[in-house]
Amino acid sequence: MLDILMGAISLGLLWAVMTIGVFITYRILNIADLTVEGSIAMGAAIAAQGITLGMNPYAATLLALIGGMAAGMATGLLHTQLKIPALLSGILTMIALWSINLRIMGKANISLLRMNTVYTLLENSGLDKAYAIIILGLIAVFGIITCLYWFFGTEIGCAIRATGNNPNMARAQGINTDVTIILGLIISNGLVAVSGALIAQSQGYADVQMGTGSIVIGLASVIIGEVLFGRKNFYSRLVSLALGAVTYRIIIALVLKMGMPANDLKLFTAITVAVALSLPTLKDYLIPIRRSYKGVD
Predict the structure, then answer these.
(1) What are residue 208's phi and psi, to 5 degrees?
(2) Residues β-bridged to residue 269
(3) Domain count of the chain?
(4) Which of 29, 49, 117, 131 is 20 to 30 A from 198, alpha carbon to alpha carbon?
(5) Sign of the CA dihedral 85, 69, 60, 197?
(6) C-alpha–C-alpha distance, residues 219 and 214, integer Å
(7) What is the domain range of residue 291?
């Protein structure tokens, strides 16, 4: 059981990086960005191909970051310059990235077995792989959270947040909302690609289909984190995202342990997200029923 929990925590920390990226678009920019389903696979593809060609794993992960940022910029330009709706812009980029990822890898998947990864240094020091992933995952997650907390407190960061809250008011204050939307998408997809690179190196392979359903996983982690761990301030919200991603992975591990078929996981995740998103509506619906039951007018 301990091995299952350690595996869930290690994987949850890597997915937490992607969850933070989803949070930036979904909560801050108020955009449902489907680019992430392509950019997470792109990050894995770039890192895997770079490592197999002899590149330093850290440099390959940095290159994955740049690739993800380029994907986010493409979506941003489609939305802001060509006036294509945000949802459709993300879908178009996601579809294009499928072919691009195949071009990058040259085939559907790349194995990283017996190759150096970002975890190799810690593993060589005697740590078990799960512990190595947890340590590096914690460093990456809290490093990213700290940087984002600082960034969104700057003038440009506040402009991005203002754009998501009220774009009309942001424009009235002289903010170029096209630039802030593009910048938000660049940061988001860059983080998602880094997550893909770290996940690929942890599982030992990159696959062109690994991004399928990732947006739902990200949303589930965001909602679980916000519901269970609260939203007192911006820093605690960012930390709650990581906790939500880890909690989601622990839930999945326990559900599998109880005997749920692996093929039903995406259905389980979709139902979880649907219920969580509908909680405000269900609450408004149930309160009058409860008052009526108690005889309160």
Answers:
(1) -65, -20
(2) none
(3) 2
(4) 29
(5) negative
(6) 9
(7) 265-297
189 and 85 in a single domain? The answer is yes
Q: What are phi and psi of 262, to 5 degrees?
A: -60, -30
Cβ proximity of 115 and 197 under 8 Å: no
- Alpha-carbon distance of 268 to 255, in angstroms, equals 10
Shared-domain flag, residues 273 and 254:
no
Same domain? For 109 and 244 the reply is yes
**281 & 217 share domain:** no
Tell me the pTM: 0.91
Same domain for 272 and 140? no
Cα angle 161-11-119, degrees, rounded to a multiple of 5: 105
- Do 254 and 293 fall within a single domain? no
Nearest to 109 by CA among 5, 209, 202, 243: 209
Q: Are 44 and 207 in contact (CB under 8 A)?
A: yes
The DSSP result for 176-202, as a single string, is -HHHHHHHHHHHHHHHHHHHHHHHHHH
At 201, the amino acid letter reads Q
Q: What is the pLDDT along the chain (297 residues), one digit of tens a residue?
A: 677 788 889 999 999 999 999 999 999 999 989 999 999 999 999 999 999 999 999 999 999 999 999 999 999 999 999 999 999 999 999 999 999 999 999 998 999 988 999 999 988 888 888 889 999 999 999 999 999 999 999 999 999 999 999 999 999 999 999 999 999 999 999 999 999 999 999 999 999 998 888 888 898 889 888 888 876 788 999 999 999 999 988 888 888 888 888 788 778 878 877 877 776 677 667 666 555 555 554
Contact partners, residue 1, CB within 8 Å, separation at least 6: 257
CA distances from 96 to 22, 34, 62, 210, 264 (A): 19, 12, 22, 15, 28
Together in a domain, 13 and 60: yes
Are 275 and 231 in the same domain?
Answer: no
CATH of the domain at 112: 1.10.3470
